[in-house]
Amino acid sequence: xxxxxxxxxxxxxxxxxxxxxxxxxxxxxxxxxxxxxxxxxxxxxxxxxxxxxxxxxxxxxxxxxxxxxxxxxxxxxxxxxxxxxxxxxxxxxxxxxxxxxxxxxxxxxxxxxxxxxxxxxxxxxxxxxxxxxxxxxxxxxxxxxxxxxxxxxxxxxxxxxxxxxxxxxxxxxxxxxxxxxxxxxxxxxxxxxxxxxxxxxxxxxxxxxxxxxxxxxxxxxxxxx
Length: 225
Hints:
The protein is α+β, with helices and mostly antiparallel strands. It has helices at 2-19, 26-29, 35-38, 59-67, 77-93, 115-119, 178-211; strands spanning 43-49, 132-136, 140-146, 150-162, 165-176.
């Protein structure tokens, strides 16, 4: 009983710690990100301040870290198990078949991009995760993914917190695929907020310290509306 109680307490503590990094939607919409003009019909699921403090030139390290990410190497055993279950379900039900992906079920968002963004570099390819990079700018990077449940966008920005001091900001945007997609996104929401995001933020902070040497810290965000 004590072990179960301790485990529940730890999950709650980590959720509260991660919650300090969660930002209100306006933190994404009030910035002049180029993704606004490309995916206005996508729903904003989450916005997070990342524990990645650095200077104005450190954004490429953040991008490289995400491109190299591997969910099977998460520092959380529970998160690794959830990802393994998700990939197994996708295999069983065909959610991740090539016929459900970009260029098949949905067109790539690159088709919507203006000429200047098409001419920009896409940034590094993902090594393990099923995202396709869209564009890379000095302070912004976007990548897309699609399967039978949704068409999604991972968006990273480099935000100046104070003069000369920056941090990463991540937004997740989705367009669910019908009732299946809406039900799926609703079902995974508590797992994302209680387990996946807290584990992901810890992993990001650890990788940042290893890559850049800056001490990761918890960002005290304004209250979520």
